[in-house]
């Protein structure tokens, strides 16, 4: 009987590349800023699919000292509310959609076949170069870094109370953290944050300057956190796939509610097994440790999307169990060593 081949863990580097490609296309597709009806999960909208030719227009910029976006435009955007951006999608050109999906599947199907990942990555680059010729140098550099494993965002995170109060970039433009960075304008602008998803019942700290979505969730196993997954997916999507913008998902301590919301986004966007999604967040934010009820609801959500079998045992989730136990220990330690003692649970 032959030994199974391939890695039991999803390749972080390739998942970062996948999101980098999406953000690149959202900036450079001519149709990037056109609102398209939200497609069925896993599908690509076809009614507004552009041709496979380069489109040079870019999407709206971010409010910052280095942006060409005037303050009046920022205020207008913020005043529109969440609904104006919920269905903001860009259509992936058909000639790229196939190679992109093949690459995603190779990178997210366990065990991961490194040869298949490399082959599909190469085909994706060829498709992108054919459609975005003027950006050949930038694309080639991005894919060369991916092939060398240089895209990993494994920053050193202080495992103390001060570290827990910070925010970490889970994927390009997608941050997860505690309440503290959400109250620090300089930190938000430094990370090019334009959207803030607050998972606790507090009023926006900077209304008018950032796009907010607030879900007053309770950190209790019996709380129905799943009811928010679709709405938060739309909000995160509207921020992360607009190029030079970003979103901070935060709760009080950044341990349970915010991480499960980010994990739910990964499950739906990448069709990532729920245990692997949580583990992926934990590798960026070691304090992430969603409560057992939230993890169960994430599993049920993944089942409803067809990501994992109904009621079955997913081996890929079992491989992520160690990360979860370690994160729970780190989170508990950080809680006890926090000097401020003012964390919102």
UniProtKB/TrEMBL annotation:
<dbReference type="InterPro" id="IPR020422">
    <property type="entry name" value="TYR_PHOSPHATASE_DUAL_dom"/>
</dbReference>
<dbReference type="Pfam" id="PF00782">
    <property type="entry name" value="DSPc"/>
</dbReference>
<protein>
    <submittedName>
        <fullName>Dual specificity protein phosphatase</fullName>
    </submittedName>
</protein>
<feature type="region of interest" description="Disordered">
    <location>
        <begin position="42"/>
        <end position="83"/>
    </location>
</feature>
<feature type="domain" description="Tyrosine-protein phosphatase">
    <location>
        <begin position="166"/>
        <end position="307"/>
    </location>
</feature>
<dbReference type="InterPro" id="IPR000387">
    <property type="entry name" value="Tyr_Pase_dom"/>
</dbReference>
<keyword id="KW-0378">Hydrolase</keyword>
<keyword id="KW-0904">Protein phosphatase</keyword>
<dbReference type="GO" id="GO:0007165">
    <property type="term" value="P:signal transduction"/>
</dbReference>
<feature type="compositionally biased region" description="Low complexity">
    <location>
        <begin position="55"/>
        <end position="76"/>
    </location>
</feature>
<feature type="domain" description="Tyrosine specific protein phosphatases">
    <location>
        <begin position="227"/>
        <end position="286"/>
    </location>
</feature>
<dbReference type="GO" id="GO:0004722">
    <property type="term" value="F:protein serine/threonine phosphatase activity"/>
</dbReference>
<dbReference type="GO" id="GO:0004725">
    <property type="term" value="F:protein tyrosine phosphatase activity"/>
</dbReference>
<dbReference type="InterPro" id="IPR000340">
    <property type="entry name" value="Dual-sp_phosphatase_cat-dom"/>
</dbReference>
<dbReference type="InterPro" id="IPR029021">
    <property type="entry name" value="Prot-tyrosine_phosphatase-like"/>
</dbReference>
<comment type="similarity">
    <text>Belongs to the protein-tyrosine phosphatase family. Non-receptor class dual specificity subfamily.</text>
</comment>
<dbReference type="GO" id="GO:0005829">
    <property type="term" value="C:cytosol"/>
</dbReference>
